[in-house]
Design brief:
By secondary structure, this protein is of the alpha+beta class. It has helices at residues 2-15, 17-21, 37-43, 83-94, 105-121, 229-251, 259-277, and strands at 52-56, 60-61, 97-101, 138-160, 163-182, 188-212, 215-226, 293-305, 313-324, 329-341, 347-360, 367-382, 392-407, 411-422, 438-450.
Length: 464
């Protein structure tokens, strides 16, 4: 009983500490809105030579998408309907635009009529009552064009005897398009688009167990984190305004007060565009982390499966050399030395040499699964005798799978499970049954990549 209670307190104190300390226990007061990271990007832009008078009539949700609901249909929209208001604030914060009211221009015109009629009623000059309205040189159009829900979902969990936990995540994406239109000619001067992902995470852990007769202990904790969609839309719109300003500077549509500051801002923007050109829609940047050649050593254990019972684990060591033929495929040579045996009946030294082809599933990631197949020669000799190349040999085929994790200095940790299958049934000097003898090998080791690492590729070719 004490051990179970201790486990529950450890679960609370270590895993759920952050979630428990941040629980909202009371209502909060109104506060000033949060400042996003893109807000500071707008503020860091160089000052304009002359602010641009811009009009925004409508910048709204064009997706028509409703919010997901587990209990059925929902009439609440997936994204905010106040895109125009967010864009107007972003234009004002940038310092490059003078936004003028056009979304509710009818209200503005009605007020101007009231002012003019009041001057007429009290003997004033209606022509001097109100100054003329500003007219825009640029109209900004566009909107929120897509909201993609569940572009990535996943999770993991583990339970054993009523104790365990699980975690789930979901990623959504919102996309914004913004274009500048000349009021003189109607020409679309520039169109840009930006996107922002939203993350939702749910973690829970619980304990459900009988600690004694008629004594049941139950414990659970967890939390769910969801990014506000309004903040994601705000960041996407602010980023679109920043990109529009920089694209306009690059094309000479407008100019900055300090040409040197504008040049530095454009240089940073071009570097960002180069990174984005090498980044896919999952925010992954294809970059080859592995050099063309690699040497490695691994230690592990073998498990014989043959005509004798009571197989036991035996030690083994492997050496390898790989040469990358493409981003996905490598060809190399492997050498191994170990032993096979059972508790009572059979012991033998075993070594092999083979040519192997390896397929790297995710070559542009630091952690990747891999698959390997090889063809070679398997040497076996009784444990009492000294190993030599004159030992009994037979052709064998192997297949393996594992995972590789890159570390600094062009090294990688590799763990794998291999299946070695000789082409005859004399691995244990006993021919019996319908199937040939074989053995498994579990190994873990270090792989060192030598040579210069290639540069990131913008559009990597598929393996097949």
């Amino acid at each position: 009983m004490r051990h179970i209670l201790l486990l529950a307190w450890v679960m609370l104190g270590t895993w759920g500490c952050g979630a428990w300390l941040k629980q909202p226990m009371r209502p909060t007061q109104a506060r000033i809105g949060e400042l996003t990271t893109t807000y500071y990007l707008l503020k860091s832009l160089p000052k304009p030579a002359e602010p641009i008078i811009a009009a925004v009539y409508k910048f709204q949700d064009q997706t028509g998408q409703y919010k997901l609901s587990e209990n059925g249909g929902s009439f609440s929209t997936a994204v905010t309907q106040g895109g125009t208001t967010i864009l107007m604030k972003a234009l004002e914060e940038s310092g490059w635009f003078v936004p003028i009211e056009r979304e509710n221009i009818g209200n503005l015109l009605n007020e101007r009529k009231l002012i003019r009629s009041s001057h007429i009623q009290y003997g004033g000059d209606p022509n001097k009552a109100v100054p003329p309205l500003l007219f825009a040189g640029v109209i900004l159009e566009g909107g929120i064009v897509s909201y993609d829900a569940n572009i990535i979902t996943g999770g993991a969990g583990l339970r054993y005897f009523g104790t365990g936990g699980s975690g789930q995540y979901r990623q959504d994406r919102v996309t914004v398009y913004l274009r500048a239109v000349s009021t003189n000619t109607g020409k679309v001067l520039k169109t840009v688009y930006t996107s922002r992902t939203l993350l939702t995470q749910a973690v829970d852990m619980g304990l459900f167990r009988f600690v004694s007769f008629k004594r049941l202990l139950e414990f659970e904790t967890g939390y769910t984190y969801t990014e506000p969609s309004e903040l994601a839309v705000t960041e996407a719109i602010e980023k679109a305004v920043q990109v529009l300003i920089l694209e306009g500077l690059a094309d000479g549509l407008w100019s900055a007060a300090d040409p040197q500051a504008a040049e530095q801002a454009l240089k940073a923007y071009y570097e960002e565009k180069a990174r984005m050109a090498a980044t896919d829609w999952l925010q992954h940047r294809p970059q080859q982390w592995r050099s063309a050649s690699a040497i490695g050593m691994a230690f592990g254990a073998t498990l014989y499966q043959g005509d004798y019972p009571n197989a036991t684990l035996m030690p083994a060591v492997d050496l390898e050399y790989q040469r990358r033929l493409s981003n996905w495929w490598s060809l190399g040579a492997r050498f191994g030395l170990g032993a096979l045996g059972t508790y009572d009946y059979f012991r033998s030294k075993a070594s092999y040499a083979e040519i192997a082809a390896t397929y790297t599933v995710l070559p542009f990631d630091k952690a990747t699964p891999w698959l390997r197949t090889g063809l070679g020669v398997l040497f076996t000799e009784d444990e009492e005798g000294a190993f030599s190349l004159s030992a009994k040999y037979q052709l064998s085929w192997s297949v393996a799978a594992g995972i590789e994790i890159m570390t600094p200095q062009q090294t990688a940790l590799s763990v794998g499970l291999a299946f070695h299958y000789p082409f005859d049934d004399m691995l244990d000097n006993l021919e019996s049954g319908r199937y040939n003898d074989y053995y498994y090998q579990l190994s873990a080791g270090l792989r060192v990549y030598v040579g210069k690492r290639p540069q990131a590729e913008q559009q990597p070719q598929r393996a097949f």
